[in-house]
Amino acid sequence: MKQYNGIKAKYPDACLLFRVGDFYETFGEDAIRAAKILGITLTKRGAGSDSETALAGFPHHSINTYLPKLVKAGLRVAICDQLEDPKMTKTIVKRGVTELITPGVSMNDEVLNSKSNNFLASVSFGKKNLGISFLDVSTGEFLTAQGNEEYIDKLLQNFNPSEVLIPKQNRVQFKEVFGEDFHTFYLEDWVFKEDYAFESLTQHFQTVSLKGFGIEDLQDGVIASGAILYYLSETQHNKIQHITNIQRIAEDAYVWMDRFTIRNLELYHSTNLNAVTLLDVIDKTLSPMGSRLLKRWLALPLKDATRIKSRHEVVSYLKENKEDLQKIQYQIKQISDLERLISKVATGKISPREIIYLKDSLDAIIPIKTLALASKNESLKVIGDSLHACDLLREKISTTLNQDAPVAISKGNAIATGVNEELDDLRAISSKGKGFLEDLEQRESEKTGITSLKVAFNNVFGYYIEVRNTHKDKVPEDWIRKQTLVNAERYITEELKEYESKILGAEEKIQQLEGQLFEQLVNWMGTYIKPVQLNANLIAQLDCLNSFTQLAIENNYSRPEIVDGFDLEITEGRHPVIEKQLPIGVPYISNNVFLDRETQQMIMITGPNMSGKSAILRQTALIVLLAQMGSFVPADAVRMGIVDKIFTRVGASDNISMGESTFMVEMNETASILNNISESSLVLLDEIGRGTSTYDGISIAWAIAEYLHEHPNKPKTLFATHYHELNEMEVLFDRIQNYNVSVKELKDTVLFIRKLVKGGSAHSFGIHVAKMAGMPQTVIQKAQKILKKLEKDHSGENLSGPGIKTEEELQLSFFNLDDPLLEEIKEEIMNIDINTLTPVEALMKLNEIKRMLVKK
Hints:
Blueprint: H1 2-10, E1 15-20, E2 23-27, H2 28-38, E3 43-45, E4 53-59, H3 63-72, E5 77-82, E6 95-101, E7 120-125, E8 130-136, E9 141-147, H4 149-159, E10 163-167, H5 171-178, E11 184-187, H6 194-205, H7 219-234, E12 247-248, E13 256-257, H8 259-264, H9 278-282, H10 288-299, H11 305-320, H12 322-333, H13 338-347, H14 352-374, H15 378-386, H16 391-400, H17 421-448, E14 454-458, E15 462-468, E16 480-484, E17 488-492, H18 494-525, H19 529-555, E18 561-563, E19 568-573, H20 578-581, E20 591-595, E21 602-606, H21 613-629, E22 637-641, E23 645-649, H22 662-674, E24 681-686, H23 694-710, E25 716-720, H24 729-732, E26 736-745, E27 750-758, H25 766-772, H26 777-793, H27 807-810, H28 820-830, H29 839-855
Helix pairs in contact: 6-7, 10-19, 11-19, 12-14, 12-19, 13-14, 13-19, 14-15, 14-16, 17-18, 25-26
């Protein structure tokens, strides 16, 4: 316990798994937490005494079952192993922490998800900017950036790190800005110093400066990256030569989407349970590397027309050459997770079987290389040319390891015959030994006439001869008795003893030699880290492009035309997610959208709730996004200039936990849009102003629409609203056009046709929607009466622009009729003390008011 307490003191905030014999034990608080998370028994040591401690443990070979559960529960887990062989020491066995696993730093396959990166992030707080860095230690990807709070927030949303490192002094600030959804870990402030970070990075990459990585001017980004390297050494991750470079996330290279847009468009997360996200629909990748890269492409759509077009070219080529596509897909299916396998080589945590997977994956790349080089597409040729054949590596693995190598080196028979002469000799002795035992058994049986005699082995006595009691009298005198059983005796002979030491010695030596040869192979493979990582990246790109092609073929997507300028013209566009959710046989109603900066900068879409306004808004954004990722799009044709920022304000989401109402959230998001628009922006606003009173809402919506129209950047805007008063804007502003989502009125119901047509819509169908939702009949009838009354009272009034009415008229008053009876009723109601009124009294009071009306 003294040894345990000493080690625990160094890792106070981690759950310490302490190796004792064949078990990993946890003590005290750790044991209470572990028992709860893992569902294992909690016992006590020294019950009732002063040294009473809680205790919970599990067998050491079950570590892969239990470890992921602890990490996923958000714990940091320190694994404390025995550092020497208990047989070799007379005192207490030396122990030490061999690995510290945290949610963001793990190489364990059970903790990781093959389709997602497991990022560790670090945020540094500078004077003007914040720096951020992301590292996936399981793949070696290392990225950095810096910018304002909004930009860092967007990256945190996109990369969704499992753990975030922050300086202790900024813990409050971090929570205020980025919320409490992240697993955070606080580091001492001195770790976040520029000279320390610079030194850590240059030392690791063995360079003099960081110019080669293009990050030397990112002062805050460099500090954040240095903190990550410090954290790796603190968590005992010292073998990290698979982190071969660090990349800058260039803010100006990708489409800007703020976090609201990422959330509103449900790209890869959704607040709704069982919701299907865009990623679910478009991910047709076949390899783990492809799946992870596709997420990155979705988070960071391109703005460079040349790169976008080159992706479109590849998809076009593969779509036309389906045979090539199928061959490449077949080969990609044979490829394991190359990125994570080569990282395991670097950290020395790879098993013989995984090395065979690595070789098989590299073998599968050769036909892809040949195919790509022979294709008529330039981009594919470049990929083919860049793929590394790794001939020597593949050959070395083939000759060194058996094809059916075991899961662990200790299981034996991993190294192939012919690699090491001594090993082959020892194996011969070992296998001959087995034959020798069979001979001995037969020989002794014939000599003594004991037919049931058998030679066997156990860990306590080694080899022995077992004789049943019925033949006990036939045993020769020179046999030495070793053990008596109920119905048999066990003996040994000199000859058997001699051979035992030879065989057991050989097996021990074999294990030792195999271990050494395997270690040499793994160390030598370390020289191939970069080429294999390059291959993994190229295969991931190819996998994503294949995925786009498959998507286009299956769902009838077409190639978008990227042009100079600002126009956006979508012919018969569809919503990629909704069209997949429709029942079989129900067609998706497609729509045309045209936006430019001269004639139709803003489309004002009116139409009832449920008619499909939001779907049209979202599908426009998703089509633009898919096009700029390099994918084909769900439309008959698209002609578009590059969009550099997409803003959406869709749907109401209360942020009550942060103390903000729906309306406050809406205004925050809208303010963020108005302050950041550029001339290539696409702005999608849905039901702005609905979180407040009608006239307030109309005024705000009008003012926002006018601001966007008059803004010198003239951003392309789709504005969906159910305030029909905004249709007046088409007359007053020359670049605003009215459209509506058409509806067919039948006698007492409505049919939603979901087609966008020119012109504003006359009135809302909210009551029809309420009826369809199953609202009680009495509520529907009452609503219709009130609607008729309001329409009658307000007929003749038309809103032809905000700010025309006087303050009094803006407030809809229930009692503004010059009627003494109503005044009396008003008086009556105002004098009721609701807090002390019982339900029965309330009914009586209501009856009284009713009588006053009847009297009249």
